[in-house]
Records
---
Amino acid sequence: KGLTAAGHRVVSSAPDKFTPDTLLVIWNRYSGNHTIANQVERGGGKVIVAENGYLGRGGTSPKFDVHPNGPQPHHYYSLSLGFHNDDTRIRESDTDRWATLDVEIKPWREGGDYVLVCPNRSFGVPGRSMPEDWAKDTAKRLEKFTTLPVRIRKHPGNDAPKHTLQHDLAGAAGVVVWTSSCGIHALAEGIPVICEAPFWICKSTTVTQSTLMALASENSHDLALDRDAALRRMAWAQWTCAEIATGEPFKWLLQ
């Protein structure tokens, strides 16, 4: 619906030749999708990558919002040009999309009982996907820099968590992620976040506090200093089903 409304002719099978007019829309960029995406880009075309949204209305998790009854008009999905979870190509506007999420940005937390490590699943684009043993290796490195206990929250796609994310964030002094959206929830809760991936939706403006700088290894990437800007930029990287159906997100991404 959305692509048609935006003026595109939609086909379900790949053409014999990719040209600068080709637009590929895929669900995440891994395995065969990544191969086709590379071919499209080599032909001069564009790739839009869809995935679960980052943060739902009221602070919910979009992936789990859809589970009871399927996608609804108000549910969020991310749409990005080139790669999912990458903030380097986000376009912005004076319009405040963050306000529509109705999520309170809480004051920075002081103290905490443990450091929480939140891994992704270790598959995806080469050079961007999380190393298979990243969570365990990160926990070992953190234990050298902090006296706080280090806890690993396993990815819910691999292991059903014993507690909700809100429960696990409740006592956290800091959160360390690869590119997990748990970090976005943590930022909104006022919990400092360290991101170790080269790209992340809040990467360029992830916030930390001096009390947590010692938790970062020498190989951690630099962290910038504006949490509000990070979350407001993130809001331009996800769209509701109703918005997608109008075609406006595709026009926005491609103009």
---
Amino acid sequence: GEGHNSCAAALEEECRNQNIPCDTEDALRFISPEVSRFISNWHVRIYRHAPGLFRVGYRAAEDHPAQFHEGSALYRYLTQGAEKLCGFIAGSGYDTVICTHTFAALMVSEVVKTHLPNLKTCFIATDYTASPSCDRMRLDTCVIPDAALTELFVKNGVSPDTIAPLGIPVRAELYSCLPVQEAKKAVGLDPSHRHLLMMTGSMGCGPMEEITQLLANSLPAEYDVTVACSSNRQLLRRMRRKFADRPNIHICGYISDVSVMMDSADLFLTKPGGISTTEAMVKGLPMVLVNVVGGCETPNLEFFVSHGGAATADTPEAIAALCKRLLEQDEERLIMRQSLLAMHKTPAAQAICDCLGTWGINRTAAWDSNDKQGGHKHDDRNIGQL
């Protein structure tokens, strides 16, 4: 999922800002490039075309945690690249490895156990829940999204001494906000119009087309709807044809400046991915959440609905009606916005980087001027991310 990559990119950006050498790698490639492509491609296909299958698989993982235990077929499969990964970490001189996915965390746990016991390690949870296999991770630090989730992670086998409730890293640009009317002008919208932004993940999944049709039929012309189909090119082509005669329905692929587009929105319709919901929280952007995939996204939905920053409904018709009502209710959206902003603390990437020094990182490692990042001069910390 792109959320794990986005989390890593946000943390790498902050490392660069603090002059900490940092690389990001695909953990699965240490098993083999073919395995990486296979898992990633099927993940996208299942999310986009058979979300129910993902839901069933995630529930099975929750109900049968033994499949992640040492000696299990899945554990052996996921950790078969540990030897190669170990050589890469040691050969590159990394002090610390940070994992943004549980598969990577299992691989690094095996590396620490068998070869590099002094390596400093960290896992960043990118959902508002304790994912299956977190009890099998043997890393120094487990960064969780919110202190309210501490008990849940402990209950699921994470040592309380390792938990750091620092949040989920998102890109620094999202912490800068334009006034809504100015942002609407910047994205080509009438500042007096209400604006609904719809984004359902990097894969463009869920009943986007059906919901857009319902909104097009029910919203007045002075209500704009922007739909981001992201990497789903078939959906993009189909929806552009279908809504070509609707001037207030704007269909696009990837949005080049998500931060400004979110600033221009009065309401955000999205699936409850950990990164998407965190980005909206940072922006104070009220959400309507569509529980397309389930699995780890259901706790995300429950977290933000329970905290007052989001609302949800069960059917496309009910979702469209909810969006219309919230667009009409300025006071209700303001309450949701205030709830989200009250949850927001220090930017997570900054908080994590600030803590790196307290995690006992070897401060003698350095990169010379010929390193592949273009010449960091003998800095005191050297970070790898997976």
